[in-house]
Amino acid sequence: MYTEAEGKNLGVTGWVKNTRQGTVIGQVQGPPEKVKEMMYWLSKVGSPSSRIDRTQFSNERRISKLEIRGFGTRY
What we know:
Oligomer: single chain
Structural class: alpha+beta
Radius of gyration: 12 Å
């Protein structure tokens, strides 16, 4: 809920999902500076009840057009 709100607040698109292992996976798209802000939020702030032990970002690439509309939570 908090991650979805932060994504919408920053104006990025994408999704997040809590896994059974207690981790979070997802995808973020948008202007590079906004994506970096979201990455910072995910790695240093997070939702109020979260405990961030480490973050790992992978498959970073530039895209010419957004592939996802909106920002949401997957279940």
